[in-house]
């Protein structure tokens, strides 16, 4: 509505012979975006920043990421615009392209956007997706300190210390948190124990190598990690 009103004002001024102001987004650098540093060390942080000084945008910018080898843009986060500027730090574990999309009073297809590709230095070793099959978790964590298994209750591993990571397997120690199900799982108690974890079955997740099977030792229990089925 505000966009249409602005266009109408411009048209009226033109008829009257009065110099019209530039429409929002038409000025050079009205909406800019930069992801840096380029390249970035695996597991390091990039700063997503720029200017948004246009008239009809609201005060926010959303960020999406598309990994190399993938055709899908996936939402990552958002930030606010203050004094015409915005900035946010994001971890990056694999090479790909960032996209900043300005909030605006328009449909999402017409929202102004800018992109910037950032490469990751070093070999892209497999990571782990913390999530479950009820959603579509995206980001692959490289050597995460916690691993979540359950979507509904806390069941997972903390204090994960990675001892070895290769392109096909990995090994780590951790503290397991589990329900003893005594006298029943509904009335059970959460316990902890020290375990060793091994990882295998590497698959691509949005173009990124990911471990999709984990085995706990000494119990020998194996779990399918997302995006594999449980």
Keywords:
single chain, 230 residues, mainly beta, six-stranded antiparallel sheet, four-stranded antiparallel sheet, 15 strands, 7% helix
SS-based structural class? Answer: mainly beta
- Which outline best applies? elongated
Q: Could you tell me the radius of gyration in angstroms?
A: 24 Å
Major β-sheet profile? 6 strands, antiparallel
Q: How far apart, in Å, are the first and last alpha carbons?
A: 48 Å
DSSP helix count?
1
Taking strands numbered 1, 2, ... along the chain, how are they ordered across the largest sheet? 10-11-12-13-14-15
Task: Tell me the total number of β-strands.
Answer: 15
Strand fraction:
over 45%
Low-confidence stretches: 1-29
Q: Estimate the mean pLDDT confidence.
A: 79
The proportion of residues forming helix, as a percent range, comes to under 10%
What are the secondary-structure elements, in order, as H or E? HEEEEEEEEEEEEEEE
Keywords: Signal
Signal peptide: 1-24
Structure commentary:
The chain is mostly beta strands. It is built from 1 helix and 15 strands; from the N terminus they run αβββββββββββββββ. The strands form 4 sheets. It has a 6-stranded antiparallel sheet with strand order 10-11-12-13-14-15, with no helix packed on it. Strands 5-4-7-8 form a 4-stranded antiparallel sheet, with no helix packed on it. The chain has a 3-stranded antiparallel sheet with strand order 1-3-6, with no helix packed on it. Strand 13 and strand 14 form a beta hairpin. It is elongated. 22% of the residues are buried. The N terminus is likely disordered.
């Amino acid at each position: 509505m505000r966009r249409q009103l602005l266009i109408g004002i411009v048209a009226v001024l033109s008829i009257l012979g009065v110099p019209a102001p530039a429409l929002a987004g038409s000025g050079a650098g009205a909406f800019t975006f930069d992801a840096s540093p380029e390249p970035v060390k695996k597991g390091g942080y990039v700063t997503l920043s720029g200017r948004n000084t246009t008239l009809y945008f609201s005060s926010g910018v959303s960020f999406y990421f598309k990994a190399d080898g993938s055709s899908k843009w996936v939402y990552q986060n958002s930030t606010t615009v203050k004094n015409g500027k915005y900035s946010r730090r994001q971890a990056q574990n694999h090479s790909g392209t960032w996209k900043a999309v300005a909030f605006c009073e328009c449909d999402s297809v017409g929202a102004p956007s800018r992109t910037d590709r950032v490469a990751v230095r070093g070999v892209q070793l497999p990571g782990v997706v913390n999530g479950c099959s009820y959603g579509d978790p995206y980001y692959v964590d490289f050597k995460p300190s916690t691993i979540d298994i359950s979507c509904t209750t806390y069941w997972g591993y903390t204090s994960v210390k990675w001892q070895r990571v290769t392109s096909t397997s990995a090994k780590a120690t951790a503290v397991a948190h589990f329900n003893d199900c005594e006298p029943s799982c509904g009335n059970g108690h959460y316990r902890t124990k020290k375990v060793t974890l091994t990882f295998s079955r590497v698959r691509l997740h949005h173009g990124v190598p990911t471990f999709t099977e984990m085995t706990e030792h000494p119990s020998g229990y194996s779990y399918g990690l997302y995006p594999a089925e449980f």
